[in-house]
Amino acid sequence: MNIPDSLKYTKDHEWVKIEGNTATVGITDFAQGELGDIVYVDITSVGQEIAEHEIFGTVEAVKTVSDLYMPVSGKVIELNPALDAAPEKVNEDPYGEGWMIKIEVKSGVEGLLSAAQYKELIGK
């Protein structure tokens, strides 16, 4: 299982890459594995200010639908357009081509987990 040390994580299984005041967000390798084959990613929150822990979209797998939670407070500034045509990128490359949103960060970064803390959370 891939859990890059360079990223931050949430208890809801999102990963966060912080670059200045911008954060790129997706779901972890663990989460995509638990969900199974992802068939649809529904995110319509671009341009919206969303508080930490609020829902910013959903991901649909063959057998389930799961909410996506904001890892930090901020404004959604970009969606990954590739996921409309190829939602399976989340399964194939969750930390690369399978990213979901970019956020202009307002607050909440201090509450994110390190890779070691996330590994402990999922028992790896």
From TrEMBL:
Name of a matching Pfam family: GCV_H
Domain Lipoyl-binding: 22-104
Cofactor note: Binds 1 lipoyl cofactor covalently.
Cofactor(s) essential for the protein: (R)-lipoate
Keywords associated with the record: Lipoyl
In-chain residues carrying the UniProt-annotated modification N6-lipoyllysine: K63
Matches recorded under InterPro entries: 2-oxoA_DH_lipoyl-BS (IPR003016), Biotin_lipoyl (IPR000089), GCV_H (IPR002930), GCV_H/Fam206 (IPR033753), GCV_H_sub (IPR017453), Single_hybrid_motif (IPR011053)
Function: The glycine cleavage system catalyzes the degradation of glycine. The H protein shuttles the methylamine group of glycine from the P protein to the T protein.
Family: Belongs to the GcvH family.
NCBIfam families cross-referenced by the UniProt entry: gcvH, PRK01202.1
Description of how the protein assembles with itself and partners: The glycine cleavage system is composed of four proteins: P, T, L and H.
Record PANTHER family: GLYCINE CLEAVAGE SYSTEM H PROTEIN, GLYCINE CLEAVAGE SYSTEM H PROTEIN-RELATED
Name this polypeptide is given: Glycine cleavage system H protein
Organism name: Chryseolinea lacunae
